[in-house]
Amino acid sequence: MWRAGCPERTVASDGPLLARECASIRMSVHPTPNPTTEDADAVHAESQAPEHGAVARLKRLDEELRDRLRHPDERPHEYPLKEPHAPPPPVAPPREPGFFDRFKGRQGVKSLIAIAVALALGWFPLQRLLATTSAEATVNARLINLRAPIDGNVSLVAPTLAVGTEVEPNEALLYIANTRADRGRLDDLRRTINGLTTDMHAAEKRVAQLKGIEANLVAQRNAFQEGRILQLEARANELKVQITSAEATHEDAHQAMERSKKLRATGSQTIATLLHAERDFKTSGLAIQAAKIRLEGNKIELDAAKKGLFVGDSYNDLPRSAQRLDEVRQQLLDGSARVEENKGRIAYLENELAAEKQQLAVHSHADIKATVRGRIWEVLTANGEEVRVGQSLLRVLDCAGAVVTATVSESVYNKLFIGQPTHFRLRGESTEYAGTVVGLTGLAAAGSNLAIEQTALTREPYHVTIAVPGLAERRECNVGRTGQVTFDTSTAASPETVKTADALN
To answer: Localized where (predicted)?
Structure first.
């Protein structure tokens, strides 16, 4: 007969320890109505364990008892026989259930799931609480101040010109016209150019006339030269004939002298006749020499005439036509040089005139165009208003160059460095934008023309500027929106970065 999983005969024959254990199990499963003091303590200890633990132990004991019934003569070493009078071994107190034993079963699984969900939900706020973040952060951007380059009246060009209007680069916004622009320099240049042009045309005409006179004088000089050469050649021929005639006369005088000498020797002729014959002979010889000298002089004049030089007693080495030709050529050179000079001056003044026209165009009218993509932040003029040079007309918000200005505590500020990576998240959005620390101004605000001054951020005294390229990619202009900056403090600043930060601060 089985009683709560233990055979009755086995309880008495298999040792006191097994008997007590079976009794403990029976009491935990079916507690007795009147337990003894020892049994009450066992029941109280066992009642602390879960029911499924007792059932498992009961099954294990049941299997051991079945094995003993099959082999009654064998005694397992786990339960050695004790001496009859030996005191029973002390009973170990029941083991308290472990932490993980409490989560066995369906209720335990549910508890584990609840704990995991609680940890997951609490980790993200805890992580953000432990992260290095800014106290407050605002999207900011530079303000571009468009000023009047000239004096004049303003006219609106853009269809709409109001605060918040989106503008694109090179978009015309305003037009300024100045009807009182100074034209004095431009008029002076034009008058000077006209005078030089008139003088140049007169010089060109004079040069053309001188070229005609030069041609006539050249023809006259050439004709005179040719005539002079022919004249000298004819005189040379004449001198040659005279020399021939003188030589013939000299020969006759020589023969007459010889006859006179013979007649004088015979006494047939007087001494006077002989002397006269000798004189004629000497005279004819001198006449030959004189003719040859004149022929040599004529040859010299002929050679000079062929070279354009005229040698004579009663006139200069150059004829009047040649002298006049030299004068005309000198005037021609002066006139040509004057024409070239006027051309050079006119070309220079025309360049000056073109530059002056551009200056006049710049000073007479101007187009005010947007330089960046952004939105109009402030309108400081109106249609038809008279403005002066340097007067502010518009302030345009540079949305493409958006940055984030933030304030941090002193402890956070001392952990930052130029070039440190950051993440920025707009309030109400989950998207994070990567950024970089570009300015650490500390207690002083950044000295730049930002739309929102850093002095307006007062939650913490230390100011930081962060460049966030991702904001420029957004089409809308987020200037003024708030968010939070998370600083990446896992990276360390390099020595070059520290030097740069010290220089900027």
So the answer is: Cell envelope
- Sorted by sequence, the CB contacts under 8 Å of residue 169 that are 6+ apart come out as 370, 371, 372, 373
What pLDDT digit, counting tens, does each position of 301-341 carry?
888 888 877 776 555 566 777 788 889 989 999 999 999 99
With respect to residue 161, please indicate whether it lies within any of the assigned structural domains.
no
- The reply to whether 351 falls in a domain is no
Q: Which two tokens stand for residue 42?
A: 């066992």
Q: What was the pLDDT predicted at 30?
A: 46
Closest by CA to 464, choosing from 480, 486, 481, is 486
Please provide the DSSP assignment of 175-202 as one string: EEE-TT---HHHHHHHHHHHHHHHHHHH
481 and 412 assigned to the same domain: yes
Q: What is the pLDDT of residues 468-492, one digit of tens each?
A: 988 877 777 888 888 889 888 776 5
pLDDT digits (tens, 9 = 90+) for 19-78: 455 555 455 444 444 444 444 444 444 454 455 566 677 777 777 777 766 655 555 444
* Domain-embedded: residue 310: yes
Among candidate residues 420, 407, 404, the one with its CA nearest the CA of residue 469: 404
Name the domain count of the chain: 4
Residues 56 and 121 reside in one and the same domain: no
- Asked if residues 119 and 111 have their Cβ atoms less than 8 Å apart, the reply is no
* pLDDT bracket for residue 4 (50, 70, 90): very low
Backbone dihedral angles phi then psi of residue 277, each to the nearest 5 degrees: -70, -40
Comparing 63-72, 87-96, 289-298, the range with the smallest average pLDDT is 87-96
Shared domain for 80 and 122, answered yes or no, is no
Boundaries of domain holding 38 = 2-95
Higher-confidence residue: 31 or 442? 442
Q: Are residues 357 and 186 in contact, defined by beta-carbon separation less than 8 angstroms?
A: yes
- The model scores a pTM over 0.70: no
Q: Which residue has the tokens 């259930």?
A: 97
- Report d(CA 321, CA 215) in Å as an integer: 11
3-state helix, strand, coil in the chain (%, to 5): 55, 15, 30
Tell me how far apart the alpha carbons of residues 330 and 324 are, in angstroms, rounded to a whole number: 10
Indicate the length of the chain as a whole number: 505
Query: Do residues 432 and 295 both lie within one domain?
Result: no
| Sole residue written with tokens 């403090």 | 489
Determine which helix (DSSP H) or strand (DSSP E) holds 45, and give its type and residue range. Answer: helix 37-46
